[in-house]
Design brief:
Length: 237
Amino acid sequence: MIELHHLSKIYKGVKALDDVSFTVEAGTVTGFLGPNGAGKSTALRILTGLSRPTSGSATVLGRPYAELDRPGFHVGTLLDAGAQHPGRTGREVLTLGAMMLGLPGSRVDEVLDLVGLTGKEGGRAVGGYSLGMKQRLGIGHALLGRPRAVILDEPANGLDPQGAHWMRGLLRNLAEAGCAVLLSSHQLHEVEQVADRIVLIGRGRVLAQGSVAELSRGRTLEQTFIELTSHADRSLA
Ligand SMILES: Nc1ncnc2c1ncn2[C@@H]1O[C@H](COP(=O)(O)OP(=O)(O)OP(=O)(O)O)[C@@H](O)[C@H]1O
Protein backbone atom coordinates (compact mmCIF):
# COMPACT_ATOMS: atom_id res chain seq x y z
CA MET A 1 0.00 0.00 0.00
CA ILE A 2 1.13 3.55 -0.80
CA GLU A 3 -0.21 6.27 1.46
CA LEU A 4 -0.02 10.06 1.50
CA HIS A 5 -1.34 11.55 4.71
CA HIS A 6 -1.96 15.30 4.94
CA LEU A 7 1.16 15.87 2.85
CA SER A 8 2.32 19.46 2.31
CA LYS A 9 5.46 20.86 0.71
CA ILE A 10 6.48 24.49 0.54
CA TYR A 11 9.44 25.57 -1.60
CA LYS A 12 10.56 29.08 -0.61
CA GLY A 13 7.04 30.46 -0.55
CA VAL A 14 5.66 28.18 -3.30
CA LYS A 15 3.05 25.79 -1.91
CA ALA A 16 3.67 22.79 -4.17
CA LEU A 17 1.50 20.42 -2.08
CA ASP A 18 -1.26 21.46 0.27
CA ASP A 19 -2.70 18.81 2.61
CA VAL A 20 -2.74 15.96 0.07
CA SER A 21 -4.12 12.62 1.27
CA PHE A 22 -4.82 9.47 -0.72
CA THR A 23 -4.13 5.75 -0.65
CA VAL A 24 -3.12 3.29 -3.35
CA GLU A 25 -4.35 -0.12 -2.22
CA ALA A 26 -2.54 -3.36 -3.02
CA GLY A 27 -3.89 -4.93 -6.20
CA THR A 28 -4.93 -1.65 -7.81
CA VAL A 29 -3.64 0.88 -10.33
CA THR A 30 -4.16 4.53 -9.35
CA GLY A 31 -3.79 7.22 -11.99
CA PHE A 32 -2.26 10.41 -10.59
CA LEU A 33 -3.31 13.33 -12.76
CA GLY A 34 -2.97 17.08 -12.75
CA PRO A 35 -1.95 19.98 -14.97
CA ASN A 36 1.66 21.14 -15.31
CA GLY A 37 2.90 22.41 -11.97
CA ALA A 38 0.09 20.72 -10.01
CA GLY A 39 2.53 18.99 -7.66
CA LYS A 40 2.67 15.42 -9.01
CA SER A 41 6.47 15.19 -9.28
CA THR A 42 6.84 16.77 -5.86
CA ALA A 43 4.61 14.08 -4.36
CA LEU A 44 6.49 11.30 -6.18
CA ARG A 45 9.84 12.73 -5.11
CA ILE A 46 8.73 12.73 -1.47
CA LEU A 47 7.32 9.21 -1.79
CA THR A 48 10.64 7.95 -3.13
CA GLY A 49 12.77 9.69 -0.50
CA LEU A 50 14.26 12.33 -2.82
CA SER A 51 12.64 15.23 -1.03
CA ARG A 52 11.32 15.85 2.47
CA PRO A 53 7.77 16.95 3.22
CA THR A 54 7.15 20.23 5.02
CA SER A 55 4.43 18.42 6.97
CA GLY A 56 2.44 15.22 6.75
CA SER A 57 3.74 11.83 5.70
CA ALA A 58 4.25 9.64 2.64
CA THR A 59 4.72 5.92 3.17
CA VAL A 60 5.21 2.81 1.07
CA LEU A 61 4.17 -0.48 2.66
CA GLY A 62 3.75 1.37 5.94
CA ARG A 63 7.13 3.13 6.08
CA PRO A 64 8.76 6.24 4.68
CA TYR A 65 10.97 5.21 1.73
CA ALA A 66 14.16 6.06 3.64
CA GLU A 67 13.22 3.60 6.38
CA LEU A 68 12.60 0.65 4.05
CA ASP A 69 15.12 -2.15 4.38
CA ARG A 70 16.57 -2.68 0.84
CA PRO A 71 13.88 -0.57 -0.86
CA GLY A 72 14.42 -2.16 -4.30
CA PHE A 73 12.70 -5.30 -3.00
CA HIS A 74 9.65 -3.34 -1.86
CA VAL A 75 9.13 -0.45 -4.24
CA GLY A 76 10.02 -0.06 -7.90
CA THR A 77 10.37 3.49 -9.17
CA LEU A 78 10.65 5.08 -12.57
CA LEU A 79 10.83 8.85 -12.34
CA ASP A 80 12.99 9.73 -15.34
CA ALA A 81 13.57 7.19 -18.09
CA GLY A 82 16.33 9.40 -19.54
CA ALA A 83 18.43 9.25 -16.39
CA GLN A 84 20.43 6.13 -17.29
CA HIS A 85 24.11 6.35 -18.23
CA PRO A 86 24.16 6.66 -22.05
CA GLY A 87 27.39 4.68 -22.43
CA ARG A 88 26.07 1.53 -20.73
CA THR A 89 24.09 -1.12 -22.55
CA GLY A 90 20.59 -1.96 -21.35
CA ARG A 91 21.87 -5.30 -20.12
CA GLU A 92 24.67 -3.59 -18.16
CA VAL A 93 22.19 -1.20 -16.52
CA LEU A 94 20.07 -4.11 -15.37
CA THR A 95 23.08 -6.19 -14.36
CA LEU A 96 24.31 -3.37 -12.11
CA GLY A 97 20.83 -3.04 -10.62
CA ALA A 98 20.64 -6.81 -10.05
CA MET A 99 24.09 -6.81 -8.39
CA MET A 100 23.02 -4.01 -6.03
CA LEU A 101 20.10 -6.18 -4.96
CA GLY A 102 22.16 -9.38 -4.82
CA LEU A 103 20.07 -10.94 -7.58
CA PRO A 104 21.43 -13.58 -9.99
CA GLY A 105 22.19 -12.78 -13.64
CA SER A 106 19.22 -14.93 -14.65
CA ARG A 107 16.92 -12.20 -13.29
CA VAL A 108 18.41 -9.78 -15.86
CA ASP A 109 17.40 -12.13 -18.68
CA GLU A 110 13.92 -12.52 -17.21
CA VAL A 111 13.47 -8.75 -16.99
CA LEU A 112 14.84 -8.08 -20.49
CA ASP A 113 12.29 -10.59 -21.73
CA LEU A 114 9.50 -9.09 -19.59
CA VAL A 115 10.02 -5.60 -20.99
CA GLY A 116 10.52 -6.80 -24.55
CA LEU A 117 14.13 -5.74 -25.05
CA THR A 118 15.48 -8.53 -27.22
CA GLY A 119 19.03 -9.85 -26.91
CA LYS A 120 20.26 -7.48 -29.62
CA GLU A 121 18.58 -4.39 -28.11
CA GLY A 122 19.78 -5.30 -24.62
CA GLY A 123 23.33 -5.25 -25.96
CA ARG A 124 23.09 -1.73 -27.40
CA ALA A 125 24.24 1.43 -25.59
CA VAL A 126 21.38 3.29 -23.90
CA GLY A 127 22.49 6.55 -25.57
CA GLY A 128 21.20 5.09 -28.84
CA TYR A 129 17.84 3.98 -27.42
CA SER A 130 14.57 5.59 -28.45
CA LEU A 131 12.48 7.11 -25.65
CA GLY A 132 10.18 4.08 -25.76
CA MET A 133 13.14 1.72 -25.30
CA LYS A 134 14.41 3.84 -22.39
CA GLN A 135 10.96 3.58 -20.81
CA ARG A 136 11.01 -0.20 -21.17
CA LEU A 137 14.48 -0.36 -19.62
CA GLY A 138 13.45 1.95 -16.77
CA ILE A 139 10.41 -0.18 -16.01
CA GLY A 140 12.55 -3.29 -16.12
CA HIS A 141 14.95 -1.71 -13.65
CA ALA A 142 12.03 -0.84 -11.36
CA LEU A 143 10.77 -4.43 -11.44
CA LEU A 144 14.09 -6.23 -10.86
CA GLY A 145 13.40 -6.87 -7.17
CA ARG A 146 9.76 -7.98 -7.73
CA PRO A 147 8.47 -5.06 -5.64
CA ARG A 148 4.99 -4.96 -4.11
CA ALA A 149 4.60 -1.25 -4.82
CA VAL A 150 5.43 0.55 -8.07
CA ILE A 151 5.68 4.30 -8.64
CA LEU A 152 5.91 5.39 -12.26
CA ASP A 153 6.09 8.91 -13.72
CA GLU A 154 4.82 9.06 -17.32
CA PRO A 155 5.84 5.48 -18.19
CA ALA A 156 3.88 5.43 -21.48
CA ASN A 157 5.57 8.60 -22.74
CA GLY A 158 7.29 7.81 -26.05
CA LEU A 159 5.75 4.37 -26.43
CA ASP A 160 4.23 3.53 -29.80
CA PRO A 161 0.65 2.15 -29.86
CA GLN A 162 1.92 -1.41 -29.54
CA GLY A 163 4.15 -0.35 -26.65
CA ALA A 164 1.30 1.48 -24.92
CA HIS A 165 -0.87 -1.63 -25.27
CA TRP A 166 1.94 -3.72 -23.79
CA MET A 167 2.32 -1.24 -20.92
CA ARG A 168 -1.37 -1.46 -20.04
CA GLY A 169 -1.12 -5.25 -19.92
CA LEU A 170 1.98 -5.09 -17.74
CA LEU A 171 0.38 -2.69 -15.24
CA ARG A 172 -2.79 -4.79 -15.05
CA ASN A 173 -0.69 -7.94 -14.49
CA LEU A 174 1.21 -6.20 -11.68
CA ALA A 175 -2.05 -5.18 -10.00
CA GLU A 176 -3.52 -8.65 -10.42
CA ALA A 177 -0.40 -10.05 -8.73
CA GLY A 178 -1.20 -7.81 -5.73
CA CYS A 179 1.05 -4.85 -6.45
CA ALA A 180 0.04 -1.27 -5.54
CA VAL A 181 0.67 0.78 -8.69
CA LEU A 182 0.82 4.58 -8.72
CA LEU A 183 0.94 6.01 -12.22
CA SER A 184 1.46 9.71 -12.87
CA SER A 185 0.54 10.73 -16.40
CA HIS A 186 -0.78 13.38 -18.75
CA GLN A 187 -2.04 10.70 -21.14
CA LEU A 188 -5.63 10.65 -19.97
CA HIS A 189 -6.79 8.12 -22.54
CA GLU A 190 -4.11 5.66 -21.40
CA VAL A 191 -4.94 6.21 -17.73
CA GLU A 192 -8.65 5.84 -18.36
CA GLN A 193 -8.06 2.39 -19.83
CA VAL A 194 -5.77 1.02 -17.14
CA ALA A 195 -6.56 2.69 -13.80
CA ASP A 196 -8.95 1.45 -11.12
CA ARG A 197 -8.88 4.78 -9.35
CA ILE A 198 -7.95 8.34 -10.17
CA VAL A 199 -6.49 11.08 -7.98
CA LEU A 200 -6.71 14.49 -9.62
CA ILE A 201 -4.66 17.35 -8.18
CA GLY A 202 -4.45 21.02 -9.11
CA ARG A 203 -2.30 23.72 -7.56
CA GLY A 204 -1.12 21.27 -4.92
CA ARG A 205 -4.58 20.21 -3.73
CA VAL A 206 -6.63 17.08 -4.32
CA LEU A 207 -9.50 18.20 -6.56
CA ALA A 208 -11.18 14.81 -6.83
CA GLN A 209 -10.54 11.13 -6.25
CA GLY A 210 -12.50 7.96 -6.93
CA SER A 211 -13.01 5.28 -9.52
CA VAL A 212 -12.82 6.25 -13.19
CA ALA A 213 -16.61 5.81 -13.41
CA GLU A 214 -17.23 7.98 -10.32
CA LEU A 215 -15.08 10.78 -11.66
CA SER A 216 -16.27 10.69 -15.24
CA ARG A 217 -20.00 10.10 -14.75
CA GLY A 218 -20.52 9.24 -18.40
CA ARG A 219 -18.11 11.82 -19.76
CA THR A 220 -14.55 11.26 -20.89
CA LEU A 221 -11.81 11.64 -18.32
CA GLU A 222 -10.49 14.52 -20.40
CA GLN A 223 -13.75 16.45 -20.06
CA THR A 224 -13.77 15.85 -16.30
CA PHE A 225 -10.11 16.87 -16.04
CA ILE A 226 -10.62 20.14 -17.91
CA GLU A 227 -13.75 21.04 -15.99
CA LEU A 228 -12.32 20.36 -12.53
CA THR A 229 -8.92 21.94 -13.14
CA SER A 230 -10.33 25.09 -14.76
CA HIS A 231 -12.87 25.41 -11.95
CA ALA A 232 -10.01 25.20 -9.41
CA ASP A 233 -8.05 27.83 -11.36
CA ARG A 234 -11.05 30.20 -11.34
CA SER A 235 -11.70 29.77 -7.62
CA LEU A 236 -8.01 30.28 -6.74
CA ALA A 237 -7.50 33.23 -9.12
N1 LIG B 1 12.90 22.54 -6.37
C1 LIG B 1 11.92 23.43 -6.48
N2 LIG B 1 12.06 24.70 -6.04
C2 LIG B 1 11.06 25.60 -6.11
N3 LIG B 1 9.83 25.31 -6.63
C3 LIG B 1 9.63 24.08 -7.09
C4 LIG B 1 10.64 23.07 -7.05
N4 LIG B 1 10.13 21.92 -7.58
C5 LIG B 1 8.86 22.20 -7.94
N5 LIG B 1 8.55 23.48 -7.64
C6 LIG B 1 7.27 24.14 -7.85
O1 LIG B 1 6.29 23.33 -7.24
C7 LIG B 1 5.09 23.30 -8.02
C8 LIG B 1 4.75 21.87 -8.37
O2 LIG B 1 5.72 21.37 -9.29
P1 LIG B 1 5.77 19.84 -9.75
O3 LIG B 1 7.00 19.69 -10.57
O4 LIG B 1 5.62 18.96 -8.57
O5 LIG B 1 4.46 19.73 -10.68
P2 LIG B 1 4.01 18.58 -11.68
O6 LIG B 1 2.57 18.32 -11.41
O7 LIG B 1 4.92 17.42 -11.58
O8 LIG B 1 4.16 19.28 -13.09
P3 LIG B 1 4.47 18.67 -14.55
O9 LIG B 1 3.21 17.99 -14.98
O10 LIG B 1 4.76 19.90 -15.36
O11 LIG B 1 5.66 17.76 -14.42
C9 LIG B 1 5.36 24.20 -9.24
O12 LIG B 1 4.87 25.49 -8.94
C10 LIG B 1 6.87 24.20 -9.33
O13 LIG B 1 7.35 25.39 -9.94
